Request: fold
Amino acid sequence: MRRIQRRLYRGLLFLLALVLSYCLSHAGPSSTVAQAQSQIFVNQASAQFVGPNGPATTVSNQTQVGTLTPPGPLLPLLQITKTADRAAAEPGDVAIYRLLVTNLSTQPATPLTITDQLPLGLLYVPNSVQTTPQQPTQVVATDSSLTLTFASLGPGESVSVAYGVLLTPDAVRGGGRNIAQASAPGFTPVTAAYQMTIRPGILADCGTILGRVFVDKNFDGQQQPGEAGVPNAVIFMDDGNRILTDPDGLFSLANVLPGYRVGTLDLYSLPGYTLAPNLYRIEENSVSRFVRLSPGGLGRMNFAVTPTFGEEQS
Amino acid sequence: MNQRWWIGYGAIALGLPAVGMAIAPALGQSALATYSMRVTSGDDGPVQPDQGLTLREAIELANGTLTPEQLSEAEQALVQPLPAGQGSRIGFDLPAGQTTIALVDLLPEIVAPELVIDGTTQAGYDAEATYDPKFPAAPAVSLTVAEGSEVARGLTIAADGVTVRGLSLYGFRTSDRATQTTPPSDIFVSALAPPVDASPLSPVLALFRLDQPDAAPRGVVIEQNWLGLPPDGEFPTVPSAFGVTVFNAVETTIRNNRIQNHDGSAIITGFRADGLQVSENAIIGNGLAGMPDAIRLEGTIAASAITDNLICANDGSGIYLFKPEGATQISGNAIQYNGRRFERAAVYLMGSDHQLSDNFIGYQPGPGVAVTAFPESHRNQIRGNRYAELDGLAIDLNTQGNTEVQDFQKGDGPNPPRNSHHRRRETGNAAINAPQFDAYSFASGAAEVTLTGTADPGSEVDLYRVAEDGFPYSPLTEPLGTVTASPEGTFSASLALPPGTRVSAIATDPAWGTSEPAAVSSVLAADGTLPDLPATPVEPPSCNPPEPPPAPVEPPPPLEPLRLEIPRNVHFALDRSNISPESAGVLDQIAAALLEYPFLTVELHGHTDPRASAAYNLALSERRSLAAREYLIRKGVPMERMRIVPLGETQRRSEGSGRVEYARDRRVEFIFTDVRGLDIIFLNQEADLQLE
Reply:
């Protein structure tokens, strides 16, 4: 009993010593770290316990951290950040760009010039510049560039600029990468880029193909009430796309390049069915459908099927 | 659109005389003169006054498109006017030995109401030879296609109350051509059948009157016929495409027929088949090269019933309901050995309120009954059926909106218990839970064993005995009784069952339908042991017609251990699936063995060499298996004993890439099962190897 108690006591002490040393090494005021950037921290832990030969002390090895070199003289430094209200845009959209310029140095930047070069197809929206807290002394805007001049940006101060750009149809041909630059005499110019994904949007020329596979009961090639759709039928496109019909026998294919497109019903995917004869449109008596898809247009490929026999012939 | 209308008007203009002829009698039905006629000539050809009355002339007389005055006197003697109000009758008095009517062209559509075409009137018809109503006596008159001709349909029926009795119809199909044809069949029932081929003369859509139920022929009866096989019962040289197509007709009755050997389904419905009655038919070996299901119901099928049929050895499902409207009743059928080519459920249900009762469903490489998850299928009552030898659940409800390819063929296996009310909408029979026994084994008391478990509250739990071992969801062999689950969802049943019995259960709620079976539980002896019950030998059912009156049965000699050598493979030429003369010799040996030992069953594994795409090779291997099967069928091997398993290029015989290796790969292997202790040496022969 006594022995157990003694062991417990020993363990407790050891734990206490560990916790204490951890606190010592970590809980020091943070200001001391900042002040003593060039100092060397030496850390050593010790533990006391009651051993078989009475109280004893044991010491850990020494660890040391931080041999930071003192920073060099502060350079005149500007910082620029560029963001926009969207990552992707389409022609016709207005995107809002924001710039934040901060003077990180100890001397004022006088005067501060901010230049923003817009990529192809993006137009500056006239009179859309808003800046805080300073107002620019001069704004020069052309269609594709914007230059703002501020009287002075004091040490540690920031200026925020927001402006709108309109995406024209030409934007589709451009890169969508926009570079802003901030400069001041005596400062190294800094730049920030923002990449916006330009989607073709309304100018996209991809079309859509929709269609259905169904059991034709009156052999007219159209689906009427009572003519059930066939699930899991496979249609192959000329470019190798494989389309599966849904449980109602419908399918749709978005983003199809315009032009002459051909889709073929894979009869192997519907055992027991074959293409239904069309009594009224001879063109539709074929397992493939030919669609002239105009840019951005809609094409239709309906396949009428009917129960089959004589599969060994084909 | 415009163009289509122009075609339509053109069709009216050009087709007016023909359409007028077809429609006029239908409109003036009461005015039709009726006759009793005797067909004495098996010839076919244009209508002309000559010595004998042909079937074509008889039908035209009944239709009113021909008058007796246009015929010769000899023919007029065979035509007796009947009093008004009685339908025409066509009997047969063909000279002996000339009882085959070989058509050279489509017969006119039958528009005479209440016409009876009765093949049993022919001398030589032996009604006494019917030992089982499912297998009517061999017809004396057969209706087929003249050699070298192509006729798409045997009889086309468009009038009310027409009866076709005691005929053998076979060989009706169309050949492959650039543009498909509308489905050919032995008997086609519809108001104005669609033309066989597409042409500018197709009647405009409105003339089909699909939207008018009144226009559909009502009460057509097809009985005691042999469809798809000649009176000698052999496999026909030219198989028919479909058996009976009920395309647009109400209250059609198909009873006591033998429907066999079709490329497509035996019975298929099209647009409307309300009130269809299919009873006591033998539907064997259909779907060989087309729609594989024996009975395929599509369109509206309200108040239809399929009762007491033998549905055996078809290539797909026994009964497949594809998105029908209305409910059907399926009872008393024996549905066995189907799925020879497609591993489908024996019965596949889509739609709600179907009733499946008192059927025997077995020997299927798929589940017994599958209920689809989409379209929504609820309240299907599946009770009192017996199951055996299934590869899947006795009842499989598709769940979680599963609509993959497999789900529309085999189902998706056991469902987890319902964990959300949304499961009801995306599961067959509204996700009614399968019952669950409280334990996998119950100790038997002195006389009875008390089985307890849980099921959906208020549902009726049918307990079943399970005879087969293995799989926790073995087929439900025989119903034991029914108990009702308490409102708390528990059930308890006390039954006198011998220890060693294995039991399962299904739950039925009228509001939702029948559940999947419970996992099997067994009855222990009082001391906690599980004794082995003596296995009762089950003689597997066959599809054979009943034998003539019971010959004195001599006890079968005990099977002696016997050594037998059977070749187990045949080879094929590159990219071919035809049977070479050498392979035919090998197949003859296999056929002889199969015929000598009627219990032997065989799987035909088709293989190809690894060249060409996997999909192409899969199709090629299937053609090879089918070719081998067709050869064996023609040698008289019953088709319920053969299964098609195409394997494509997945299992090569050899590893190299030389001519010899490829030649060895191109083969069909015969995997014999159920050898019953017979000591068979299977020979990998290479006598018919085709090098190229």
